[in-house]
Amino acid sequence: MQLRSRRSHFSGWPADARPGIYAVTTNPMLPAPVARQRLLLLDSSRDAPALAESPYRGLLLRSVFSEALPSRAIVLEPALGHLADGDIVRVDPQREELRVLFRPSAPQNSLLVTERCNSFCVMCSQPPRDVDDSALVDEIRRTIELIPRDTPTLGLTGGEPTLAGEGFFDLVRHACNYLPDTELHVLTNGRRFAEQALAARLGELHHPGLRLGIPLYSEQPDLHDFVVQARGAFDETVKGLLNLAAEGIRIELRVVIHRHTYGRLAELARFIARNLPFVEHVALMGLELIGFAKVNLGNLWMDPYDYGPQLAQAVRTLERGGVPAVIYNHQLCVVPESVRSRCVKSISDWKNDYLPECDDCALKAQCGGFFSSGLGLATHSAHIAPFRHSGLIA
Question: Is the pTM of this model over 0.85?
Answer without folding.
Answer: yes
